Amino acid sequence: MYCTTCRGPVDPNPHGGWYRCTRCGAWNAAAPPAYGAPQAHAAPQAYGAPQAYGAPQAYGAPPAFAPPMMDGVALVADTDPSRVPPPPRQATANARKLVFAYQGSQAISRGTGIAFSLALFPVLIPAFGIPGEVALLVSATPGTGTVTRVALDPSHRINKRPATKVEFSYTADGQKYEESYHTLSAGGLQAGATISIEYASLYPGFGRRKGESYSFFGFASLWFLAMPLVGFVLLFTAWRSNRREIRAYVRGIATVGLITERTFGNSKQGNRRPRIIRWSFQVGPDTFTGSISHINHYLIDTLLPGPNVVVLYDPNNPSVNTVWVG
To answer: Are residues 249 and 104 in the same domain?
Structure first.
């Protein structure tokens, strides 16, 4: 394109309109370039019909439910009392774990009872004279005795000092008996001296010098028996509770109960507290309750999922009851 005034070459304006010559500075008008007709596009490509897919694949029936297992035994809850066998019943594998075995609070009571009961052996020596103290308390009879021997006994100490052993003899109901006592001051006693004594008329073999105790600790030695006594009580409580549950399971009547509480015991077995499940049930117009515990929370919660539970109770005493587990 050239300038219309000086005919100098100028750069074309591709958009048309006015532009200025770079040589003479004149403004020139230029017609916009002519564009050709719109390009014709081919018709859209024709696609074939959608592909036909076969019918959905048929899958088999869903797999049968597999109950949880423990030690090779299926843990299946059963809340239908009509399926409970008539008495006398045999213990199922799950019942042996949950009802027949010492578990939960029963196991804790039995273990504590055994530990406390073993304390009986160390306390037998200090508590050995308790029978004599009791016999003399209820049937003390005054009398006289004859000192047979006075000697220092280094093996026996009172207030960390060696004690003197005084041996004496006395006659009761025509029979001669011998006894002894320890003291820090024999008071100048010698063999052949006469002393005042007391003996038990219930058993004359229990005798003591008047004013002395029959045993070293006296009745204070009863405190040594407190721990084994508590142990025996715990053992008996655990045994009685377990036998009552077994009796209800073997010979009890089945009914439906309602679980009222799931909680944990206060005592621990190892580092775990036992799981406790409580229930209530009706026998006629009366409402009774029961409970069971186990240290294995998964086992007891799986076998007794609730809200209902099959209860087996003693018809003569419905307070003796337990649960049915198949």
So the answer is: yes
Question: Each residue of 264-321: pLDDT tens digit?
Answer: 988 887 788 999 999 999 999 999 999 999 999 999 998 898 889 999 999 999 999 9
Closest CA to 171 of 138, 137, 148: 148
Cα distance between residue 80 and residue 84, in whole Å: 8
Could you tell me if 96 and 137 lie in one domain? no
Rg from Cα positions in the chain: 51
**Domain co-membership, 134 together with 211:** yes
Mind listing the pLDDT tens digit for each residue in 43-52? Answer: 666 666 666 6
pTM: 0.59
Beta bridge partners of 265: none
Q: State in Å, rounded, how far the first CA of the chain is from the last one.
A: 107
H or E element: which one contains 251? Answer: helix 226-251
Residues 92 and 326 sit within 8 Å (Cβ to Cβ): yes
